[in-house]
Write a structure and sequence with these properties.
Number of domains: 1
Radius of gyration: 18 Å
Oligomer: single chain
Largest sheet: 8 strands, mixed
Shape: globular
CATH topology: Rossmann fold
């Protein structure tokens, strides 16, 4: 009975946290600001989505075009109805079907391994891939699929995704990419990227131009920092760690935000 009540409390907490986070993200998107242009701390007690979404939406241009969501980060009603998404032809590429499905709203879904995409070359004007790359080649049966083939231990295979995203992006198109950043760590179901891995991604993608930014969590919330300050940051793994251990962040203690133009 004690275990039942503990599990119930955890489910209630996760539900309330998800609602609270959604409201905070929604309000941040209404302000339409770029977190990398602000030094102030915000998003206290929230995970890295509170900086990733405002960063992406502030930089995605208005108007039409084909947008690929590589990892299904926009697959929520309040995000899909944002003007910068509504104006575009959206395709979501993800590993397995999810509870949310907006096919009736002309959102296209493709279920695939992003290391081997089905799309033709130079298909998309924009690609967004937020907090997805860190899961590639690791144990995705923990949260995202029941297919045992995706219980892997090949962390370096994320480079194949970079090759595919480059292939399907039009010349002059933009990739918006984010990952947890800091001291390298392999948690089995995700990995934390360090500076050498970020450099490898940029070199492999070979952009015509790019912007590189970092945000880090502290007791005051999220704020902009440089790579040196973000180095050594950790990831709080709620599935394998107990609260009370460092860091104080809800999940990633720091994130890298890359805007890569082909």
């Amino acid at each position: 009975m004690k275990q039942f009540h503990s599990a119930l409390r955890l489910r209630v907490f996760r539900y309330l946290y998800a609602k609270y986070k959604q409201r905070k993200i929604y309000n941040a998107l209404k302000e339409e600001f770029d977190p990398l242009c602000f030094g102030r701390a915000f998003g206290k007690l929230l995970d890295e989505r509170i900086v990733e979404y405002p960063w992406f939406f502030s930089r995605l241009p208005r108007g039409g075009g084909r947008l690929l969501d590589a990892g299904s980060v926009t697959n929520f009603s309040y995000l899909l109805h944002h003007p910068r998404i509504l104006e575009k032809e959206l395709v979501i590429s993800t590993l397995a079907p999810e509870k949310n499905c907006f096919a009736s709203e002309k959102v296209s879904y493709v279920y695939e391994d992003m290391r081997d995409m089905c799309f033709k070359r130079e298909r998309f004007d924009y690609i967004v891939c937020l907090s997805t790359l860190e899961h590639v080649g690791l144990d995705n049966t923990k949260l995202y699929t029941t297919e045992s083939a995706y219980n892997e231990a090949t962390p370096q295979s994320y480079t194949a995704v970079i090759d595919e995203l480059h292939r399907v992006l039009k010349p002059g198109g933009v990739l918006y990419l984010s990952m947890p950043f800091g001291e390298y760590a392999d948690h089995g179901w995700l990995q934390v990227f360090d500076g050498s891995m970020v450099d490898e991604i940029i070199q492999r993608f070979n952009p015509s131009s790019y912007e590189e930014g970092y945000c880090r969590y502290s007791d005051a919330g999220w704020s902009v920092c440089d790579r040196r300050t973000a180095n050594g940051s950790r990831y709080f793994d709620v599935h394998n760690e107990s609260r009370g251990q460092e860091p104080n962040a809800v999940a990633a203690e720091a994130v890298v935000l890359l805007e890569l133009t082909k």
